[in-house]
Amino acid sequence: MDLRDSFRNATRAIFAAKMRSFLTMLGIIIGIAAVVMLMAVGSGTKQSILSRMQSSGSGNLYLTAGARSNVLMGGGGPGGPGERSGASSGAKITAEDLTYIEARITYPIVVSPTNQTNITIKNGDTTMSGTGIFATPTYFEVENVTIADGRMISTSDIDNRTRNVVIGATVQTTLFPNESAVGQPIRINGASYKVVGVAVAKGETVGSSVDTAIVLPFSVGEKSFGVVHKVIQRTTIKCVDPTQSSAVTTEITDILTRKHKKVDFSIQDVAAMTELVTSAMTILTTLLAAIGGLSLLVGGIGIMNIMLVSVTERTREIGIRKALGARERDILVQFLIESSLLSIAGGVLGIVVSVLGSDFIVSRFTTTVVTGSSILLAVGFSIAVGVFFGVYPARTAARMKPVDALRYE
Amino acid sequence: MNLIEFSDIRKTYTIGSVTIDALAGVSFDIGEHEFVAIMGPSGSGKSTLMHILGCLDTPTSGAYRLEDHDVSELRSNDLARIRNRDIGFVFQAYNLLPQLTALENVLLPCTYSTHVISGRDERARAHELLERIGLKDRMNNRPVEMSGGEQQRVAIARALMMNPPVILADEPTGNLNSKGAREIIDIMKELHADGKTIVYVTHDDTIGAEAERVIRIQDGCVVADERN
Hints:
Structural class of chain B: alpha/beta
Low-confidence stretches of chain B: none
CATH superfamily of the largest domain in chain B: P-loop containing nucleotide triphosphate hydrolases
Number of domains of chain B: 2
Number of helices of chain B: 7
Helix content of chain A: 40-55%
Number of strands of chain B: 10
Strand order of the largest sheet of chain A: 2-3-8-5-7-6
Mean pLDDT of chain B: 91
Strand content of chain A: 15-25%
Largest interface: A-B, 24 and 24 residues
CATH topology of the largest domain in chain B: Rossmann fold
Oligomer: heterodimer
């Protein structure tokens, strides 16, 4: 029997019992939709976490004072200075430490020391609060901050303790809604500074955002802000070749341990954290898919149930076909195609439901990404379900003795 | 030459601890172009006999030769091929598939054929057969839209589709009125005249009288084998 005939027979049988076929498919529709949507939530969450981590610089290391036993329990993340247990016991990173590291490191790196404090920013009658970031010119390269208007903090700003600042995009729109801030005076904690540049908006990143911050030269404000620039809160080290990040971590740890005679600092590697998050999210996505897969299993059992009913109902038809020369294989193929078609149709509808569902409903609550691989998986799975749960009923049909099948009332 | 040779065919059913001999050693030969009626009361074993003749069932013991091949030892795929190619069935209940039109029902055996015939040739033959039995205008009707006699004529066209040497008819007029029955018997005689071997199972003596030869079965044994 050629396949075209088989497909025609199968579609005819499916359409002959529309309601029943639809209800049978519903199990698969729900199962596939569950798998695809749960995977979409999983990969969406993964992607949004990763993009936040990447926008804060791939291949970056964060050097802070105070030893930490567990990177996962450390809290604060790469952006948050946070209180360290070691800080109170006198552990600190100094400018001298950084010079020492730069003199001995064998890999190409860019070092960006920063100190941060909360500030109040004012222009005329408008006031907002933000973060003051004391930084060197390398800050912009290392943290991936680009200038929309004006210029960066320069080396001469640092050397001359010029009160020139670069403001974040949100500061620009809040305090200077109608004009470019470049060249304008701005008051920070009551003192007057001059805006020389505006940074491009970065959106959400891990830790504090540059959008609501003001970047000041790493030499000003010791008196007015109460920061001590001899002690560096956080140093971001950019590996020129991001793949070297773990080797650089090891080397800096060695160098600094030799100098301090103990490990009273910690280095966080964004690449390592990214890897950790990626594998954790992959496990989560797999788990979600497995939960969806359970409902697919139930749908498959539904198909088997209906196919068994269908085989019994059509016993006489099977007998007639056998009397006319159908072999066991012909009958087997006929019922397998029927169960597979039910399952594939259910799978396709399930994908439609899940794409619509994740675009219009779930995406309101969380980020979703329907990946091609989840759709392939869903289609593959629905074919597999149709064949797997169709085999038993189809074999039952194929193995009927023609004489018994013909006599069936 | 003998088309069918039955020697000491037995069929035993075991139901619980009871064994029933549906056929207790049946032997006969049927030659080419014969018109044979197999007659017997219900429960005589004639249905079992007919099923074995039609390769729908296998005997418990004994040898069955069809067209000089031993078919009692064949496996299910080979039996399927024989049912497709060598035997045309006509059943009491017509056994048409209700979801198919008359034409599609007639074409059904082709879908299980191992011969490669072009679809156009198949359709031309099906048209010709339906025309021959007077159902040219009913080709695209489904069985429910046809009378019993018409349905049985479609079934005969289907039986002839693969051009088998043997037509096996099991009470084909059992569900029909006398006019319909007459038509079927006339078609059978016509087919016989065209060279087909007809094996006709019935319990109706008036129909048996139309056959060349009558084999009578009772309690699973041949009790009479006479020529009219």
